[in-house]
Design brief:
The structure is a single chain. The protein folds into five domains: 132 residues, Jelly Rolls (Sandwich), CATH 2.60.120.380; 157 residues, Jelly Rolls (Sandwich); 79 residues, Sandwich (Immunoglobulin-like), CATH 2.60.40; 75 residues, Immunoglobulins (Immunoglobulin-like, Sandwich); 54 residues, no CATH class. It has no helices and 47 strands. By secondary structure, the chain is mainly beta. A hairpin with an 8-residue loop joins strand 26 and strand 27. It is 0% helix and 44% strand.
């Protein structure tokens, strides 16, 4: 007898309580990568620690408690680093209260704090660390007191600092390139607090002086961003004439000046500088109409010396970040690293470094961990081999007689050619609707490139491909890359994709019906896409024929 099966569907009503998910960068292993750390600033409320959890690591050195933290990572492009977290304050949309910052390295699952300094004013926290290794990966941990969480603005600057500026023109810091940098503290007005007398800025409060010589005729703009958004930053720029016989700063050679009290104005502003869109040359103190903190960029004259006085009028010791733009350049030592590789990715590989340098008085090389030569002081060339694999960073510093320094770095990876990978598959053939899973062994610090039919690509060691198209048959290839070394291409062929079988039949005579036993029933096979068949006739008898005839021996009703 063919059994008639009653399928009963049961529906269950239930309520699922959804738990808020922590941010993706809740752990150091999933830190959010900051790609640009040269004078980088996010917008207000661009990041959040809402729903973050405690990592379980020891609290930062300057923290009262661990709190609930989030993580960011970056590659150092300079020896010094500042990070500023702006929390809740009037005029912004941030919500985080009393933020905390700490810096770390994370290697071989070992987290090591890089102790620097941290200061907090209101809900704005600035942290600093010097002595970073250019090219190394570092981590920024952000938390808050009292387990607070919320949204925040993050500013990061990885830079090579100029000499510490003095508070008088006579002790100004010489700048030899337009790299941005951060000044952490500006304290006092020096021996003479009236050097800007007669300009829009008269008495200095907490000042910093910088000078440079124009290397060409070109435009120059700049942006001054205070580390504390409540600080009123004023400044004046002087053209001192030809560097062969420069004048001293005075109201007669002041060419730009901005002293507006933007932090007290409406609309409020705190960033100041010179740009290509402004037309005014001076902005006076107070809140004059149409002042926004910016004046017109300058056209530098080749060979002229310029002096920039930046003053924190708020009588606070907070610093600022200074960033330049335009096509005008500063006169200073120029250097670039030239590299050649011989026998790349082989046991005999070596690297040849040469300095392309000019206008310098001395050079200093550092060739990185495991180098056959650790340091040098000439242009080279230097033939270097490495005793250890892994990431390397070569640093070239150029110094001038004026006390200027430029820093160049080149990061690369020392490794051998990876072995040709072996591809494993979850099965040898696939049906429409199934999933193809291919994988290769993971290689440390490697990247992967898969290609396949229908434009398929992927970049992980293991891939999962839903089979939805007969055109997905063919060769799937993968290459392993470590540094600049590539493995041979590995290939697996998927020869065919099978349609899913559809079981379907009729009977002769037609059932259900009443018949006298014994009765033969022929099963007319209308199935599709099948290779073989298994019949179960409902009376413990089976068959594998394509279209069987079965004799029912008992007197029963056939359904």
């Amino acid at each position: 007898m063919l059994a008639r099966i009653l399928l009963s569907l049961f529906f269950f009503a239930f309520i699922v309580k959804v738990q808020a998910q922590p941010p993706v960068n809740d752990e150091v292993k999933t830190a959010s990568l900051l790609k640009n750390v040269a004078v980088y600033c996010s917008g207000d409320a661009s990041f959040t620690s809402a729903n973050a959890t405690a990592s379980g690591y020891k609290k930062g050195s300057f923290w009262s408690s661990e709190g609930k933290d989030v993580w960011f990572s970056f590659t150092a492009i300079g020896t010094d680093l500042t990070a500023t977290v702006t929390g809740q304050a009037a005029g912004n949309s941030n919500t985080l209260l009393t933020p905390l910052i700490a810096f770390y390295t994370y290697k071989d699952n070992i987290l090591t704090e890089q102790i620097g300094s941290m200061t907090t004013e209101g809900n704005l926290t600035t942290a600093y660390k010097g002595g970073l290794m250019i090219g190394e990966i570092y981590y920024i941990r952000i938390s808050a007191e009292n387990d607070a969480t919320g949204s925040f603005k993050l500013c990061v600057n990885s830079y090579n600092p100029p000499n510490k500026p003095g508070q008088d023109f006579s002790s100004a810091s010489p700048l030899c390139n337009k790299d941005g940098f951060t000044e952490l503290k500006v304290t006092g007005a020096g021996m003479n607090n009236s050097e800007a007398n007669g300009t829009c800025l008269s008495i200095e409060s907490n000042s910093a002086w910088y000078t440079w010589i124009a290397a060409n005729n070109g435009t120059l703009g700049f942006t001054i961003t205070p580390t504390a958004v409540t600080d009123d930053i004023d400044w004046v720029l002087f053209d001192l004439g030809p560097a062969t016989a420069p004048a001293t700063p005075s109201s007669t050679n002041a060419i730009r000046c901005a002293a507006g009290s933007g932090v007290d104005c409406s609309p409020k502003y705190y960033i100041t500088g010179a740009n290509s869109t402004s037309v005014d040359l001076t902005e006076q103190g107070g809140c004059s109409p149409n002042q926004d903190g910016f004046v017109k960029a300058i056209d530098m004259i080749e060979g002229h010396q310029y002096a920039l006085l930046i003053d924190n009028f708020s009588n606070k010791n907070n610093g600022f970040t200074l960033a330049f733009d335009g096509n005008g350049e500063f006169l200073g030592p120029k250097s670039a690293i030239e590299i050649k590789t011989e026998d790349a990715c082989l046991n005999t590989q070596k690297f040849i470094f040469t300095a392309n340098a000019s206008n310098y008085s001395s050079l200093k090389w550092s060739f990185g961990e495991g180098a056959s030569i650790t340091t040098a002081s000439t242009t080279g060339p230097f033939e270097i081999t490495y005793s250890t694999p892994g990431p390397k960073t070569v640093v070239l510093e150029a110094f001038s007689l004026r006390g200027c320094r430029t820093v160049n770095s080149y990061s690369f990876y020392v490794t051998l050619k990876p072995n040709k990978p072996i591809i494993s598959a979850n099965r040898t053939n696939f049906c429409l609707g199934s999933t193809m899973e291919l994988s290769i062994p993971e290689v440390q610090d490697a990247s992967y490139k898969w290609t396949g039919p229908v434009g398929f690509t992927d970049t992980t060691a293991a891939i999962s491909v839903p089979i939805t198209d007969f055109a997905q048959v063919g060769d799937y290839t993968v290459t392993v890359r470590v540094g600049d070394c590539y493995s041979e291409v590995a290939t697996i062929n998927i020869p065919t994709i099978v349609r899913n079988p559809v079981a379907n039949f009729q009977t002769d005579p037609t059932v259900p019906g009443k018949f006298a036993a014994p009765v033969p029933i022929t099963f007319l096979n209308h199935s599709r896409n099948a290779d073989y068949f298994e019949w179960n006739f409902g009376d413990d008898e089976t068959s594998t024929d394509y279209q069987p005839t079965h004799v029912y021996q008992k007197k029963e009703t056939i359904w």
